[in-house]
From TrEMBL:
Belongs to the concentrative nucleoside transporter (CNT) (TC 2.A.41) family. This is Pyrimidine-specific nucleoside symporter. Residues 9-80 form the Concentrative nucleoside transporter N-terminal domain. It is a multi-pass membrane protein. It comes from the Bacteria. Residues 194-403 form the Concentrative nucleoside transporter C-terminal domain. PANTHER family: PURINE NUCLEOSIDE TRANSPORT PROTEIN NUPG (PTHR10590:SF19), SODIUM/NUCLEOSIDE COTRANSPORTER (PTHR10590). It is found in: Cell membrane.
């Protein structure tokens, strides 16, 4: 009971931290925040404690694993020795399936199915939460498309909105994942908690950004510009659609670049972290990057309802993820994740299920530079700390909420 109480208190501490750094305390819409918090608690309870809820997320996880298995057939055709072996390496098992899954989601976008789903889920979320239509739309959009892709297809809206709303979207972008990469996650971590984290992250991103950067949106401003297609400008409804096979070829090349980018990042970050460790250990054998990050993140980890030993281990994983990326930590724990206690396992999985890290800040700032004017870019650049704070708080809040129901 003690650790459950700490877990519950931790949720309110994370919200209090967001309040402490709020840009406008008076304009925070607490009624809307409370509705979303209750909604997230109900979702976490449903997905973790009810048979039908756990079956839904397990079924979704099995669906992604099935897609990965289908992708292996294409990989085995070109590289049979990489697939037909006792234990596939990280790139083959988790990243190469992206070459099929990304084009699949792009095809769903091309035929209009995915934009339709995003539009109506976003409208439903706006009605339930009382949030502006586009912020709700964008939260769902980035779940399916990823942060930079969602920003790209929303370029017309970003140009039309005031700079403060663009900052809110940039902060929200720190907490997304993309549906096309969930298959890679579910090959390394418990799929049930990966899929549970996705909707909870969406709502927590709205909660945290509305506390950190509350914005009043007038009815005239509360509109949704057209989602851009692959073949034309976002604002040109008559733009000619790109030929399908040209579109598909670009999608496959984009997926290939994504695989190379993730692979390069993982190799570089792991190697650089090892180099830093070697240098630090010259001064003291205990002094490693993980231990330093563990000390810094320990208070937040303990507030998720863990004992001191587990909290320090959890804090190290948290810090490593923020400095490198989620794949580095997932690769490190994938072989032992099922040996962890249920509470630890659930919260670690949820915390890792987002793009919140230092490199994502650079990606978001870079994406905005090509989409909006200098004034808006200057505002974003001046608030880099808020982007990172938003991503960390959303991950902590999501882990804490799920952790309440898993022991």
């Amino acid at each position: 009971m003690f650790y459950l109480a700490v877990n519950i208190i931790g949720i309110f501490v994370f919200i209090a931290i967001a309040f402490a750094f709020s840009k406008d305390h008076r304009n925070i819409k607490w009624r809307s925040i409370l509705i979303m918090l209750v909604l997230n608690l109900v979702l976490a309870w449903f997905f973790t404690s009810f048979t039908i809820g756990t079956e839904i997320v397990k079924g979704a996880a099995d669906g992604f694993n099935w897609l990965v298995a289908v992708a292996y057939e294409g990989i085995a055709f070109a590289l049979p020795s990489w697939v037909h072996m006792k234990s596939m390496d990280f790139v083959t098992s988790s990243l190469l399936p992206i070459l099929m899954i990304v084009p699949m989601f792009d095809i769903l976008t091309y035929i209009g199915f995915l934009p339709f789903i995003i539009k109506w889920i976003g409208k439903g979320l706006a009605v339930i939460t009382g949030q502006p239509k586009f912020e709700s739309f964008f939260a769902v959009e980035m779940m399916f498309l990823g942060n930079t892709e969602a920003l790209a297809v929303s370029s017309l809206q970003l140009k039309q909105m005031k700079a403060e709303r663009d900052l809110t979207l940039a902060m929200m972008s720190m907490s997304c994942v993309t549906a096309s990469i969930l298959g890679a996650y579910t090959k390394m971590m418990p799929g049930q908690f990966i899929l549970t984290a996705v909707p909870i992250n969406i709502i927590n991103a709205i909660i945290v950004t509305n506390i950190l950067n509350p914005i009043t949106v007038t009815p005239e401003e509360d509109t949704i510009a057209q989602m851009s297609g692959s073949g034309g400008d976002a604002g040109d409804a008559s733009a000619k659609k790109e030929p399908f096979f040209s579109f598909l070829g670009d999608s496959i090349l984009g997926a290939g670049r994504l695989v190379l980018i993730i692979t390069a990042n993982v190799i570089a970050f792991v190697a650089l972290a090892a180099l830093i460790d070697k240098i630090l250990m010259l001064f003291n054998p205990w002094l490693t990057l993980e231990h330093i990050l563990g000390v810094i993140m320990f208070p937040f980890a303990w507030l998720t309802g863990l004992n001191v030993s587990d909290a320090f281990q959890f804090a190290q994983y948290m810090g490593t993820k923020l400095v490198t990326n989620e794949f580095v930590v997932m690769g490190k724990v994938s072989g032992t994740i099922n040996d962890f206690a249920p509470h630890f396992r659930a919260m670690l999985t949820v915390f890792l299920t987002s793009f919140a890290n230092f490199s994502t800040v650079g990606m978001i700032i870079g994406a905005f530079k090509g989409l909006v004017d200098k004034k808006k870019n200057d505002l974003l650049s001046a608030n880099v700390g808020y982007l990172l704070l938003s991503g960390i708080l959303v991950s902590l809040l999501s882990a804490g909420i799920v952790g309440v129901f898993v022991w």
